[in-house]
Amino acid sequence: MIARPDPVAIGRVVATELKPSTPHQFHFWTANETTIGIGAIVRVAEGERVVYGVVTDGFAYSDLATPLHDVIGAEGDPARAAESPTVRQEIRYWTAAVLRQIPEEPLQPVPLGQVFVASDTDVAQALRMDAYLHSATPTAIPIGLYTSGGLEAPVYLDADFLLGPEAAHLNISGVSGLATKTSAVEFLLASVFRHFPAHKGRVAAVCFNVKGPDLCFLDQPGELSDEDRRRYELLDVPAAPFEHVHYFAPLKADGVNLNTLRTHPELVDDVTPLTWGLQEVVDFAEVLLNRDDIDAKADAFIDYLRDRVLGRAFEDGFGNSHQVGTFADLDRFFRLVFDGLEMSGRSDTWRTHHIATMRKVRNRLSNISTRCKGLVTDDGPSSDLPWGSFEDRAVYVIDVANVDPLGQDLVFARAVSKLREHLERRDLGVDAVVVFVDELNKYAPGDGPETYVKKMLLDISERGRYLGLVLFSAEQFRSQVHRRVVGNAGTQVYGRMDMDELATPGYQVLSPATKIKLATLPVGELMVRHPHFTQPIFVRFPKPPVLRGRDGMGRFPAAVDLPFEDAVARQLVHMDRRVRPNQVKDLIADRTEEDVRRALAAVRQKRPEDVLAYFRKMLGGRVAADASGDATGALDATRATQFGTGPREPGAKKRAAGRGSGAVRRKACLSNGVSRISR
Fold this sequence. Notes:
With 679 residues, the protein is α/β, with parallel strands linked by helices. It is built from 25 helices and 22 strands. It has a ten-stranded mixed β-sheet, sandwiched between helices. A six-stranded antiparallel β-barrel has the order 1-2-5-4-3-6. β15 and β16 (353-354) form a beta hairpin. The radius of gyration is 33 Å and the shape is elongated.
């Protein structure tokens, strides 16, 4: 038998013929003045048996048989009811759901014993937290404080059931605008980073910022009250912003200004441009192409391009060699193939593919860099996440809040696919990754078409835990999210809920009193369901120690877009503090913006020791287009450096030699009154 102090009983179990005690539910009465309420954990002790329960409903009774008796006693005047010579007996009557019985076998109805308010030890026993809190290899991760009945007891989740492999994933629901869902995830990530078991390896988080500045200031400290700091101490979580945060954001259409709200001069240098080229995008063409317009024949031709043409030396059968690495290369490939078909008189098929199918695929693929301009680059190298070198306890924020929905789908699909690939090969740099996705009502609705993003979310929720890929998701209306996504979440969290949402079938297991409490929850309080908890538990978490989005915009307002030259100089100075803006402006004064963007992208990818010298080298490899507008030969030298290409197109050396050096070309142009070089 477990040794316990002798606290004062607050009530006693009562069972009647109409409301008997069962192995899963019991009833008890207390005095009118009591410290317990809905969500309180109580303990019933009777002999060798101990039963823990959580209060799910409450009632008040008097000795009246009907309300009419009270009306008659007051002679119909409510003011005279207080003058009654006899005070009627009144009791508090509570219903509790069983959390745990000790011993657990044989399972029996709850005995008619005394009821006590739970202590810290009782809370751990009732929620079965002792199994993973005091084991040889603890896996406890605090999620908040149980604060009922004047008690503040930490509540822990089991890392094996939150991050795998036993179960995984977390889903949080709640109405919008109360700073609960995002704040809860921010606190939980800080808790995971602090308490993730050492024997389980390294962990990181990838967060998709899909609305406003919600996640744009995770590295900036926010204001905390003394009460919040005390709670952080109780939970053993540092009350400080995240130490290692890496921001990524696509560029705007101009190719040099970042498409993010984190553009304040003090913060923008920490944002890395996210730009992808043909090689990164083609594997996810399904995300970007209209599935109603791309049939099986088009799919087959896209597969042919991916497997036979892209990224390798290719002969088209008309005497042309191709090294397709960019959208510009792809456009040239199509032009030469179509010209070859027309000149040979075979204008219907090429390599078993009909020319109409090829033209359709060309139009769709060529439009991608236009529809996702800034994220997808027409030419030049890509800038991506540090695949293979993720840091332990680091947060990688991908800001796509200002990107159109098509671009958001592409970013999510490719990022998650790359995470899965590297985790399968165990070469990501960490052993587990938490992926946070908000607005699940948009990305995985219960109805609507089967999109690529929905398939990815289903795949993570059903198979991700075996790889260490964990989904933390949030939405406003859980009932409208795909059932397999929320159903596979081992831990489910609820903030304040809308009454219409609580009326849906998914909440029928909750008592009316619990639903009312959910509909009126204050900021900072949540209801948690976890595999170790047989009933939902209410917890309170402290305010996250990071700057909230709207507060961050007030302290660090977004800067206006810089002119092209200034934006280029800022990026180069960020990579090498020795670079002077005037040096950059002198270099690009007589260059086209396209050439400058390509050279800048090459520098971002290479990250050389001498940034300015490498930038000058990349600019020097570019020359103006000839009269026909074909500048492909001029790209060969630089492309060979950037992509490691094989044999050049026949005659490329001869054409390049005929054009002369970039410096001579520029001088000739300037002498003719041409101030800028056209491609």
